[in-house]
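Shipment paperwork, digital attachment
Item: protein structure file
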Amino acid sequence: MYQFFTMNKRKVFAFLVLCIVHLNAGAQSSSRFQKQFEKAVRFLDAGDFTNSEKEALNILARDSAFSDAWLILADIYEKSGSPANEINALEKARLYSENRLILFRLAEVNYQIGNYTQALHFYEQYSDAKNISEKRKKEVVHKIENCRFALDAIQHPVRFEPVLLGENINSPENDYWPSISLDQKKLVFTRLIKAGTISQEDFYASDFVDGKWRKAEPLTEINSDMNEGAQTLSADGKLLFFTACNRPDGKGSCDIYYSQFENGKWTKAKNAGSALNTNAWEAQPGFSSDYRFLYFSSNRLGGKGAKDIWRAEFKGWDNYGNLKWGKVENLGDSVNSEGNEISPFIHPNNKNFYFVSDFLTGMGGYDLFTAEQKPDGTFSKAKNMGYPINTFQNELGLNISSDGKTAYFSSEREQNSGLDIYSFELDPDLQPEPVTFVKAKVINAKTKQPLEGHVTLVNLTNSEQQIRTESTDKGGELLLCLPLGANYAFNVSEEGYLFYSKAFQLSDTKTIHQPEIISIPLEPIEIGAEMNLYNIYFETDSFSILPESEPELQQLVVFLKNNASLLVEIQGHTDNSGNKEKNQILSEKRAKSVVDYLVKNGVELSRLKFKGYGDTKPVATNNTAEGRTLNRRTTIRISGK
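Attachment content:
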């Protein structure tokens, strides 16, 4: 955080220039203190607050109406972080001076410590002053809006009861920037380790075992003698993006780096490459669960403000193992402002988006905001997450669990403990749509050895959503997010094998259910081999094919065209509900409908046969709804080559 999350809570206002370069002799009892006053100014310029304060107090002891001495004290207390004393000094200066800038400064210091009623009072008084620049007018209008928002937010608080994660995670040092894996079993965070005058930022990780977090251990493969921080963990926990600054292979002041988890350890960190990294500042990555986009903050050219949130399209790896990036785009006016937007986090549902801004309407400093990604990739107008999640202090970014209920964040809440990591249950109105996930392992059905299969996931409920394609890792493993409220067609294919089909019916699911953990045996293409297809749908008691069958049928067309010598039998199957004879006839007509579709799409009729089996070949019990669903299927049997 210290390297990658620079925050300035207060602006230093040059009242010495604005108010006291020209002494207002008419407002002072005499000019006899001018030399002593100039001495106080020199001490202040040199950063010697003790002697500057001493000189100013000596003046005021003999002339309490010397307003410029009170302003010197106000500057001292502002710079030394003593807002109560600063307010007192400004109030005294206001008694003896008509300078309207004192009102502005009183508004600012009250605003910065959360005294919103007083801040609003002084901002409104100052806004009536003449000869205010347009830039200052705009700033005051914005601060008035923030004060009114804050006062209303305090009157309508959201749920917020933070819980300290405990000593296995938190240490006497600063612990921050938590990232949690999709299965909520791995937590990675940054720790600031101090050794004398030297500070070092490193990564630590903990596993959730038997209902508690194990003692965090350093990620020694990634940690270096330089700083690492502001990281994001991929949904499957096998890819870590993070920020590092001023490295020999860097392209700008700060760049995004990555490491992969392979064979039980993290690989050596590498620069994420051009397009993503430029000669500007790129930091604080957030990676989407579908491996499509990396979100990040940058001050590169083309932004809306100081730091904006951008995203880069992730295209996988090239033949040399380097990352490939597609289009890099700014998230636009719904998210970015003329200020700083940082700390992006996209929930695993790839819809609910969270970030931090110091300019959008809020409580002051850096506040947490949320927005929703629309089907077309644009974002809704950002919404402040409310009080007391946001306060007059700076709030860091959030990381939210896959079920949408638990948020993780860091805060300095315990005296003398520094930054610690907390969790809290999100207010229902702020919870993202939950997701479940599929953890799959693809193997050769004959040899049981892992296969690097190609995976296709189609949202059958939302046709506007792009078809998602991925590949398993070298161990044949893959983890996929499935947002609730939709039905999905899931297919796994590999050259030389029949493809695998499964359906996930989640359109009526309102709460997260037990994640799917499945083994997928792919059958080598040989005579007699069969594959059951579960994503070919028909109208009830009819052989008319429904539109949501299109992705599965198209995959079957591609499979048959890629294996042009194969002869196949299309089999129709039903469950045991209803009349057996009707089921047999219906299953045969449905098989015939599939053949007709294939022929219409360029597959030779001479290669195809069809047959209905009714309920005579069940693959599961008919005593449960799930079993009956499995029995209602279309089967492809290789009958010849």
